[in-house]
Amino acid sequence: MTKHITIPKNFMTIFIVTFFMSNALAKTLLPPNDIADRFHNDSETIKIASSDFGHIVQEIPAAVFYPNSVDDIASLVKYAYNNSVPINVAARGQAHSTWGQSLARDGVVVNMTSLGNRLNGSGIIVSSDSSLGSYADVGGEQLWIDVLNTTLQYGLSPVSWVDYLYLTVGGTLSNAGISGQSFRFGPQISNVYELDVITGKGEFVTCSPKENSELYYAVLGGLGQFGIITRARIALEPAPKRVKWLRLFYSDFSAFTKDQENLISKNERRDNKALNYLEGMLLLNQGPQDLSFYPVSAYARINSLVTQYGIIYCLEAAKYYYDDRESRVEKLLDLLKGNLGFLPDFMFEKDVTYMEFLNRVRSSELFLRSKGQWEVPHPWLNLFVPESRILDFNSGVLKNIILKQKIPAGIVLIYPMNRNKWDDKMSVVIPDEDVFYVVSMLHSSGFNKWEAYDNQNKEILQFCDDAGIQVKPYLGHYATQEDWINHFGSKWESFRARKALFDPKMILSPGQRIFNNN
Ligand code: FAD
Q1: Integer Cα distance of 136 and 270 in angstroms
Q2: Whether the Cβ atoms of residue 18 and residue 34 lie closer than 8 Å to each other
Q3: b/e string for 84-121 if b means 16 or more Cβ within 10 A?
Q4: 509 CB less than 6 Å from ligand 1?
Q5: What is the pLDDT of residues 56-73, one digit of tens each?
Q6: Is the distance from the beta carbon of residue 229 to the nearest atom of ligand 1 less than 6 Å?
Q7: Whose CA is nearest to atom 36 of ligand 1?
Q8: Collapsing DSSP states into helix, strand and coil, what is residue 234?
Q9: Over 50: is that where the pLDDT of 16 sits?
Q10: Separation CA 240–CA 265 (nearest Å)
């Protein structure tokens, strides 16, 4: 059980945690009285906060901070900022990062979940007004699954999602938050009206495109570098009831991408004929497939198709509907299917509730947990690939590296997005083409086997570099600041200037290793 440090009531108002920097210089934490008892440093708490979903990077913090309120977080950051030697502070959502991004060596990790527990259900408030319509004010620590459950009670829902809903709002907004809805509604960061942020100086600031806009644009996709998000105002729309969910198989990559790109070209938010979701994935001839989506009667022919071609490309699409619109949606999908070039006998369809669709990854998580395969290393590689080079990426990476090397690739997602749904003023970096692809290589490995995947990841990046394919990593990590400067390209100067403005002592989210890469 987690052991908490007890502070004697009449203790001299000083709580002391001694910790060491890498240069072996002993330092002392002397936090103000009002937040002293929020720091925990028992071995179990420290152990949990030293690692993340990736199970690859380990960074040991000096303490973990359990805030009771937003004011507590502001006091912590103020204290860390004003300390004679500034103290690093990392907000930890669910630590679903894979390369140590939510860790803080020798610093303080803020357990955001603690805030949510204290709020006791009041962390998500649904409202509406004449200018914005419906929206939800959501704590940065809240999980997307809870946002969904709460907003559905009002018949409302956010429009842009992530595939897995047990991620925090602050965590995904610090990256972008992408899924099959992004082609039409933009990433999650494109659906935020307003934020409350605690900057690296400990100041509480409300920001939006109109008010303190520099901070608003910095924080969205800002990798936790400019402030801790404590509230986001998220756009809501009427929630659909059900979903027609399709998977269509292709053996020909050009036909697959041509159809994906045609489908995402219909992308107006208000266009009832546009799809609501489009993704894609690979079925690789590398051992057992996850066929749980398909009827058992189709397993044998799917397996033999995958054996025949080595790679099968699966286009995944969804159209939402209300109960009384089913026939209209079916007609629309029939029309769409008629124009697509998939293998005619390989079209699979499901009709599920909206919740079942959005929460579809949960059952896989529970299955993997039950087999002890969730808490394992995840040497993931997520890339944005320019559309003009996606055919080269297929032949050079998917076929020549991933398929040939025969280390089971796990889940590989591949689907296109529209650049005009992203706001260039935000910190996130994407390729400079109207359409670009996300390719997510979501590997799981044994504890002593992740290096094989990491080597493969490096080979993929090297191939892209040699071939002049200008990919941009998403959720990425780099060895040096030089690499980050290259990553940000023309955005680096403004990223750096914003850092100097909002976190001048460079204490926030050190696990991203952008400004403190040593
Ligand atoms: P953490 O990992 O805890 O934090 C991420 C970074 O943000 C850290 O640098 C942290 O310091 C900072 N941070 C955390 N909270 C705040 C805050 N309130 N304010 C400011 N900074 C903060 N991503 C997608 O875009 N789409 C997907 O479909 C998707 N699916 C995923 C599925 C799984 C199973 C997993 C494990 C991850 C997936 N991700 C996806 C990646 C996910 O978006 C990132 O892991 C992200 O970091 C969110 O995780 P988290 O909430 O646990 O944040």
Answers
A1: 20
A2: no
A3: eebbbbbbbbbbbbbbbbbbbbbbbbbbbbbbbebbee
A4: yes
A5: 999 999 999 999 999 999
A6: yes
A7: 96
A8: strand
A9: no
A10: 22
* Residue 28 banded pLDDT, cuts 50, 70, 90: low
Whether ligand 1 lies within 6 angstroms of the CB of 108 is answered as: no
Residues acting as catalytic residues: 96, 163, 279
Task: Give residue 473 CA to ligand 1 midpoint distance, Å.
Answer: 15
- CB-based burial of residue 407 (10 Å sphere; 0-12 exposed, 13-18 middle, 19+ buried)? middle
pLDDT score, position 14? 39
Quote the DSSP letter at residue 458.
H
Mean pLDDT of 252-266: 98
Please give the C-alpha separations between residue 305 and each of 256, 278, 301, 309, 404, in angstroms, as whole numbers: 16, 23, 6, 6, 18
Nearest CA to ligand 1 atom 23: 177
The region that residue 27 occupies, defined by phi over 0 for left and psi between -120 and 50 for alpha, beta otherwise, is beta
Residues facing 312 on adjacent strands: 283
Tokens representing residue 64 in the block:
């973990």
One-letter amino acid for residue 91 of the chain: A
Whether pLDDT at 395 is above 90: yes
Residue 497 pLDDT > 60: yes
CB neighbourhood size of 338 (10 A): 7
Token pair, residue 287, equals 């051992």
How crowded is residue 143: how many other Cβ atoms within 10 Å of its Cβ?
Answer: 21
Q: Which of 251, 201, 211 is nearest to 233 (CA)?
A: 211
**Which residue is listed with tokens 């050009």?**
254
400 C-alpha to ligand 1 centroid (Å): 31
512 lines ligand 1 (CB under 6 A): yes
Percent of the residues in the chain that have a pLDDT greater than 90, as a whole number = 86
